[in-house]
């Protein structure tokens, strides 16, 4: 099960992903990002602090969302991430591609479960 929500902050929109980001849930993430971009938000911050698990489909969705944000003249950055998601991003070197968000004091700090 996955829940994706968008929270607006001054200067950026936070995409909050809770649950398991797998093949069955990537559409929710893509839709949330597409909607935020369509509404004119350019800086998107991905909060995956409560993401329990992410498979290769989830990773692919993040890459697609990053591409969509950049094509719209914006960016997708990392906010808080869970320890498991952090491990996947590190193993795939995506932690080097996705910049941490400076507006979030806990950016890219994996939460210990």
Automatic annotation (TrEMBL):
Annotated Pfam families: STAS (PF01740)
Gene3D superfamilies attached to this UniProt entry: STAS domain (3.30.750.24)
Cross-referenced SUPFAM superfamilies: SpoIIaa-like (SSF52091)
InterPro entries xref list: Anti-sigma_ant, STAS_dom, STAS_dom_sf
Signal peptide residue numbers: none
GO molecular function: anti-sigma factor antagonist activity
Residue ranges occupied by any STAS domain in the UniProt entry: 2-113
Annotated family: Belongs to the anti-sigma-factor antagonist family.
NCBIfam families: ant_ant_sig
Protein name: Anti-sigma factor antagonist
Organism of this sequence: Sinomonas humi
